[in-house]
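User: Second chain of the day. Same drill as before.
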Amino acid sequence: MNKKVFFLTAIVSAFCAALLTAQESVSVQEENAGTVPLLLEGIWSNRERYVVFDSGFYSEGKPVMQNILRVFHSFYDDRAAESSEYTEKHPRDVNQATAKRAAEEITVHFHPLTEQLFTAEKNLNVVNEDGTVLYALEEPSGAWDMEIKYPGFKETYHVPLCVIGNELYLDFAVKSISYAFNENPLYGFFKDEGKASGITINPPVYSKELSSYFVSSDAVYTIRYWRTDMEYDGVKTAQFSDQGATYEVPKHLKSFGETFTCVNGRGTKIRNIEKSPDFSGEYKSNRVHIERTVLDEDGGSHKEESETCTIVAFGKPYLTLLSVKEIEEILRQDAEKRPPQSKPLFPPHGLLDFDWSVLDSRLEAVFRRMFRSGTFSR
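Assistant: Same format as last time:
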C-alpha cells in the first residue's frame, strides 16, 4: 500500500474511533421525570393539532401532555388528550364531534440525545467536566427520546424529536460532539434515531429502517441499517472505504427498543454505500460553538475555539412554536371562527338575468349547419 494512503487511512480510522467514544466525554444531563425541557415549553402547532408538553399537570410524577385535534378543516378543536384535573377546571364540550368518555391521559418522559444548547446571551452555556464550554451560535437546539405511556397499553412507546429554533422535527439524525477541528462543521457520524409517525393520541408507527450518515470533508455517505435479531453490541464497528480512506461507524444501533445493523452476521465490511456531495432534499442543521482550554508545553494555557454541528433535521418541521402562551386563549379564538360561506351553485346574476343572445346565436349556428348538410331546404 502507498505510504500516503496508509497514513491517511490510519488518521481517519483513529479519528472515527475517537468520534464513536466522544459521547462519553459529553455530559448529557438526564432530565428529571417530572420536568419538561425548556426548549419544549409552550404551545406547538400544525394544521392537525396543538401539543402542550408542559401542561402543568402530572400523573405518577410525570407530565401529562395535552393533544388537541383540529378537526373539520381546523374550525373545531377536539380536546382528545389532557389531564383529568384540567378537564375538571375547564369542562369539555360534549357533542357529536367530541366523545362523551373522558379525554386520554397521556404521560411523557424525556431522555436527552444531545445537549440542550442556548445562545450565549441566555447565559445558559453547557460546561463539561473537562472545562469545555458549549453554546448555540444562532438558534437554540436539542434532541430527546420522548417516552410515552398511553392509558390501556402496557408497552412504553418512543417518539424521538428535536428542536432547532422554534421548529420541532421528527425526522433527524444526531452526532456525538468531537473536539477535533475540521473545516466542515458537519464532519462526523450522524446516527438516525428513528422516525415515528407523529405525536398522536394513539401509539405511533415506527420506521422499519434507519438511514445514518458519515460526513467527510467533501461528501456525504448514506448507510442503511435494518432490524435484526442479533444481540446489541455498542462496541462493535463496521468499515467502508473510499478513495484510499477507511471510515468506521457503529455496527449496531438501538432505536425504539429494537436492534439495527448495517452488515449481516459477523461481517464488518459495509456494502452498497450511497455517496453524494450533500444531504438529499431539504434539511436544517444547528450550529454549536466550542471553547476549550489547552495546556502548552511551557506550562501555560490558551483557548481554542471551533464550530460543529450536532443535529441535522430533514424535510419540513412537524410542529411550530406559537407566540401565544395560553391554550385557553387559542381555543376561545378558534371557537369564534366561522367557516367561509360556500360558493353558490348558480352564477350570482341568477336566472332572471340570463343572456338570451347566447342561446340565439347557438340556435342560428345549429340551423346553419343543418341547411348546409341538406337536412332543410328553402
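Confidence is low (pLDDT under 50) at residues 1-27.

User: Great, on to the next one.
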